[in-house]
Amino acid sequence: MPGHRELKIITGNANPELARGICDHLGMTLSPTLVCTFSDGESRVEIGDNVRGDDVFVVQPTCAPVNHNILELCLMLDALKRASVGRVTAVIPYYGYARQDRKVVPRVPISAKLVADFISVSGVNRILTIDLHAGQIQAFFNIPVDNLFAAEVLLTYLKQFGDQAVVVSPDAGGTERARAYAKRIGAELAIIDKRRDTPNTAQAMRVIGDVKDKVAIVLDDMIDTGGTMMEASKVLSEKGASKVLACATHPVLSGPAIERMEQSHFSEIVVTDTIPLSEKARASGKFQVISVASLLAKAIHNIHTESSVSVLFSH
């Protein structure tokens, strides 16, 4: 019976610190797993525990190096399937390739769907993720997908600013997310009208809403190269915001992102640990990391005990 399956958690090399944090909240230890690389570059996976009939959760965000971490995840899932696991859930706090979810020009792949197929055929029974960039990715899987909201942990931190804050969407597409946060902390809403000239670059144009003498919180689901955020901090500072913060679930921080964040007008950059920060980012002093370990631990407990997961979707 599902209720009698033993709960086990394993992890690859993408974010073992988060996996250990989840285990701490659940009062358990990680199951031993060997995940390394052979001398010729091929990945090697070996599950150290007997998992026959167990309920296993594999914690592995598909962050950089993206392709390597996806392969590690698929190999762990295949190893569990061949070891007669009872049920396996892939815990993917950050889902790589999520921005390639449609054909925007001719003769390109829908990469987010292909990655979903890779993971599915590896033997997974369920997906647990946080703040998918595009909600429709859930339909790329023919298995249950629980898409949690990091708002549950981020709002606890942001509520300290209360009515002194204004939540700012860096573009029109993020307005719904920003409105939900603003409502929860009793803040005003503003939107930045921007023009994107080339991929991974953005130019902020003007602010729709009043930010003068307010704590402006620029909210997005991820910070990638940081161009959008940097321009947002500049225009908000020019419009008289007393303080400018950045808030994002996924600190992708690729290319010149860290340098841009250090040079920006942000006094603080609030992110979660869905993706581990590099040593360089940690050393900058601007980043405040809020852990999602407790949120994932609650979801894992509810899935394991066959309880409702929707109670965690209050956002």
From TrEMBL:
Pathway noted in the entry: Metabolic intermediate biosynthesis; 5-phospho-alpha-D-ribose 1-diphosphate biosynthesis; 5-phospho-alpha-D-ribose 1-diphosphate from D-ribose 5-phosphate (route I): step 1/1
EC number per UniProt:
2.7.6.1
| Binding residue positions for Mg(2+) | 133, 171
Give an example GO biological process.
ribonucleoside monophosphate biosynthetic process
User: Where is D-ribose 5-phosphate bound in this sequence?
Assistant: 196, 220, 224-228
| Gene Ontology MF annotations | ATP binding; kinase activity; magnesium ion binding; ribose phosphate diphosphokinase activity
Q: Which reaction does it catalyse?
A: D-ribose 5-phosphate + ATP = 5-phospho-alpha-D-ribose 1-diphosphate + AMP + H(+)
| UniProt KW keywords | ATP-binding, Cytoplasm, Kinase, Magnesium, Metal-binding, Nucleotide biosynthesis, Nucleotide-binding, Transferase
Its cofactor is: Mg(2+)
The leader peptide range reads: none
Q: Where in the cell is it found?
A: Cytoplasm
Please give an example of a GO cellular component term from this record: cytoplasm
Q: Summarize where ATP binds, as residue positions.
A: 40-42, 99-100
Role, per record: Involved in the biosynthesis of the central metabolite phospho-alpha-D-ribosyl-1-pyrophosphate (PRPP) via the transfer of pyrophosphoryl group from ATP to 1-hydroxyl of ribose-5-phosphate (Rib-5-P).
Q: Which NCBIfam families match?
A: PRK01259.1 (NF002320), ribP_PPkin (TIGR01251)
- The entry's protein name is Ribose-phosphate pyrophosphokinase
Organism expressing this protein natively: Desulfonatronospira thiodismutans ASO3-1
Its encoding gene is what? Answer: prs
